[in-house]
Write a structure and sequence with these properties.
CATH superfamily of the largest domain: HUPs
Structural class: alpha+beta
Distance between the termini: 22 Å
Helix content: 40-55%
Number of strands: 16
Largest sheet: 6 strands, antiparallel
CATH topology of the largest domain: Rossmann fold
Number of domains: 4
CATH architecture of the largest domain: 3-Layer(aba) Sandwich
Length: 606
């Protein structure tokens, strides 16, 4: 719950920084860290006023392994703040401290004698840090709105970013934002800025994790140890702690582990579970549309979890989309989920909780299912069917160029499963460009599939949840996204994630949670479906849906978002209770509306 901001006049033009300050364009209410004629740094937290070494350091966020860092610096962790600890670590190790410090953090380090600025952010945590390299001047901020307010240069919309988001092509993940010249500092990256160059460095690569070969029981013990540490480090010494809790393994593992640790000091964990307002069974065929019963089992098994329902009755999906645009300033892929996420964070904050724990990144880490190739071939066939199994085998043996050509032919249509205007997609040559993207190739190795899910060094998920939490007035922590947890899980051979006796997936976390999670949850095979009652919720706010579609049709968004498809999806949603209706609500209607409302407000509201 903190932020940083700064400016570096790279061309040394006199008076430029003073002019911005005089025009009232700099954010107010910040503690100054450094200021002269060519550079200034500020942060929201008070600064101790002590500089160690030759750098002024501004920090935001939280250090998780503070005991380890303090010990290495011969300090008493109880006597130093996170900001002070980071400053001393940078004075000792320089940029080498970035790989050592685990947490949800971002920093700016200014070396006045060298006219050198260093920006960095955490390995894979919940943090956002943005920058604008304008002619002669460089600015950075944890809040993108602070950069837009500077008006340093015209900001154009990145049309390719918008198109990729609309069609679920993950290539927009990384350093880009939809505000063309404004970039992100991606996870595990540092930037070095001087008057004549900008250098981007990546200081941690999950992809380079070597495989670990030990006994099966040692993998279980290793996961418990490293996961417990990640949870423990995210628990504050005082104040309320909350967690999201579904009926699944990821959030359940986080919640029961945190509750067990809090109970040692007589504290309880508040858990919040999203529940439907209407029966979701028609839309969640084969999955779980209401996970409350399993979440209740988890809470009862822990014994010290206070479980709360989040029905989000007071916020419609469309209003939540509008609220999210004000928070994150760009359209999002999972637009249909924001009604319950926003209500959950707001409810937790109103209850006085300063920290909410999640299990957002478990699918590619602690609860990785094990690739289909890890199963015996008979079970592969029973899972995929003979035709699907054969197709997978053949496609996996195709040369790269033939595979790319096949994908180009397959994707040469008009992206009918999205709300993109076909002419817009054609103008960008979206099909051809996507077919040429090697990361879009199917049937990759299980290891690459996991890396695709996690997107190390590129993921925007942490920034999204950090900004949502910040808007609600709390911090969001995810032990499943801890870099050490992810590295351990990636080191585990794929076959270990599958039970050799039964073929059951997610064996490692199921085994590690024996005695913690109830058997109804630990052994459950049905997947939860988020926002499963999205269709009836949209039906309950027809005027809002209609107004949104109408505004898109009569605004600049009409050149990007196909209102004919929005209207067709809306007609089907009002008449059918089917999985297809739910799918269209997610992939076409809510995603398309969020994109369209953004375009209409671009340059004015965001």
């Amino acid at each position: 719950m903190s932020g940083i901001f700064g400016i570096f006049v790279r061309d040394g033009a006199p008076g430029r920084l003073a002019a911005l300050r005089g025009a009232g364009r700099l954010p107010q209410g910040r503690a100054p860290v450094f200021s002269d004629a060519t550079a200034m740094l500020s942060q929201e937290r008070p600064v101790e006023g002590i500089r160690d070494g030759d750098a002024a350091v501004a920090t935001a966020g939280r250090i998780h392994n503070r005991l380890e860092i303090a010990r290495a610096l011969s300090l008493d962790a109880a006597m130093v703040s996170d900001h002070r600890l980071f400053t001393l670590a940078y004075a000792r190790w320089g940029q080498g401290c970035f790989s050592r410090i685990h947490g949800d953090w971002s920093c700016a380090c200014w070396h006045p004698a060298e006219q050198r600025l260093v920006l960095a952010r955490d390995h894979h945590g919940n943090t956002g840090l943005y920058y604008h390299d304008a002619p002669g001047i460089f600015a950075f901020a944890t809040a993108r709105r602070d950069l837009l307010a500077l008006g340093l240069a015209p900001v154009e919309m990145d049309e390719l970013y918008l198109a990729q988001m609309l069609v679920s092509w993950r290539a927009y993940q990384g350093d880009r934002t939809i505000h063309g010249p404004i970039r992100r500092v991606p996870p595990a990256h540092a930037l070095i800025i001087t008057p004549d160059r900008i250098e981007v460095q990546r200081y941690w690569r999950l992809e380079d994790t070597p495989e670990l070969r030990v006994r099966r029981d040692e993998y279980v013990e290793g996961l418990r140890e490293i996961f417990d540490r990640a949870v423990r480090e995210r628990l504050p010494d005082r104040g309320g702690v909350a967690a999201t809790l579904s009926g699944g393994l990821d959030s359940g593992s986080v919640a029961v582990t945190a509750a067990q640790m809090l109970a040692g000091s007589g504290r309880r964990l508040a858990a919040y579970t999203s529940v439907p307002l209407a029966d979701p069974s028609a839309y969640a065929v084969g999955g779980l549309g209401d996970e409350y019963a399993l979440a209740r089992d988890t809470a009862r098994a822990a014994g010290t979890i206070d479980l709360h329902r989040i029905d989000a009755a007071s916020v419609s999906p469309i209003q939540a989309i509008r609220d999210m645009l004000d928070i994150v300033l760009e359209p999002q892929h999972a637009a249909g989920n924001f009604f319950w996420l926003l209500d959950l964070y707001r409810t937790a904050a109103r209850a006085g909780h300063g920290v909410v724990l999640t299990g957002q990144l478990g699918n590619g880490g602690i609860s990785w299912s094990g690739g289909i190739g890890a199963l015996p071939w008979r079970r592969q066939i029973s899972t995929l069917g003979m035709a699907g199994w054969a197709r997978r085998r053949v496609r996996g043996m195709l040369p790269v160029r033939i595979e790319q050509g096949w994908r180009g032919w397959r994707n040469s249509g008009d992206f009918g499963g999205s709300a993109i205007v076909p002419d817009f997609a054609g103008r960008l040559r979206l099909s051809e460009r996507r077919a040429a993207d090697a990361e879009e190739a199917p049937y990759v190795s299980p290891r690459l599939e996991r890396l695709r899910m996690l997107l190390p060094g590129r993921s925007q998920v942490g920034a999204l949840h950090a900004e949502m939490g910040r808007a609600a007035g709390l911090s969001v922590g995810d032990p499943t996204g801890d870099a050490r947890v992810l590295a351990f899980c990636l080191s585990v051979p794929d076959s270990v994630f599958v039970d050799p006796a039964t073929g059951q997936s997610r064996w490692l976390i199921r085994e590690a949670m024996k005695g913690r999670l109830p058997e109804t949850v630990r052994l459950n095979r049905r997947m939860g479906i988020q926002a499963a009652d999205l269709v009836p919720r949209l039906r309950a706010c027809p005027a809002e849906v209609g107004d949104a579609i109408d505004s898109i049709a009569h605004g600049p968004a009409a050149g990007y978002v196909d209102t004919t498809r929005l209207e067709a999806a809306w007609r089907l949603l009002r008449s059918e209770d089917t999985p297809q209706a739910y799918s269209l609500a997610v992939s076409v209607l809510t995603r398309g509306i969020m994109a369209g409302l953004f375009v209409n407000g671009f340059g004015r509201s965001w």
